[in-house]
Amino acid sequence: MKPHFQDRPDAGAQLAGRLAAYAGRPDVTILALPRGGVPVARAVAARLGVPLDVLVVRKLGVPGHEELAMGAVAGGGVQVLNHDIVNSLGLDRVTIEQVAARERRELARRERAYRGDRPPAPVAGRTVILVDDGIATGATARAALAALRTRGADRLVVAAPTISPEAFRQLRSCADEVVAVIVPDAFQGVGEWYDNFTQTTDDEVRALLAPVAAS
Fold first, then answer.
1. Is the pLDDT of residue 1 over 60?
2. Exposure of 66 by Cβ count < 10 A (0-12 exposed, 13-18 middle, 19+ buried)?
3. CATH code, residues 8-57+116-210
4. Rounded to an integer, what distance in angstroms lies between the CA atom of residue 29 and that of residue 121?
5. What is the DSSP letter of 107?
6. Fewer Cβ within 10 Å of end Cβ, the chain: N or C?
7. What rounded mean pLDDT belongs to the chain?
8. Crossing angle, helix 93-115 and helix 202-214, to 10 degrees?
9. Could you give the CA distance from residue 147 to residue 175 in angstroms, rounded to a whole number?
10. Which of 205, 84, 59 is closest to 136 using CA atoms?
């Protein structure tokens, strides 16, 4: 029987064990990729005793096949494209920009919804651990890493309970460290590694971040 996580908090607790070297360090910040990454990151931050914030990144889904990522956008005007997918499907610039414009609007909405008037957590000169509930293609994480580089982060760590082998290899070339509990030989989707993979809601994200906002 292959290993599974009970739910996102359980996955976060297991992931924290792989990140023990960062516990209690004053130069470390954890940034969660919403929505599913927030409950995972909350558990990691609690166990490591380091600050938590959210970093909004939006996947650019292929029209008609939205689960297939052709790229991603992040705050600060960052856009990353998966050129293999773009070229293999013959996607033109107009189509890409239409999808990107829609996702940039949603990105702005979520920033307001999750953080309100609070400014983003400072990352300049810091070690940032970027956490998601799982990584399939790595497009979202790569956009997040690009955004964090522009904001002056000193060291970037990508951490997720499960990562596909291809994404793991790709992310090692653009992050300082990649940490996972499960990197399976066969990877069909993030949800297959969870007993409970119920979608995380905006309200749940706000509730998980509220103690951080109040601190």
1. no
2. exposed
3. 3.40.50.2020
4. 8
5. H
6. N
7. 91
8. 50
9. 12
10. 59
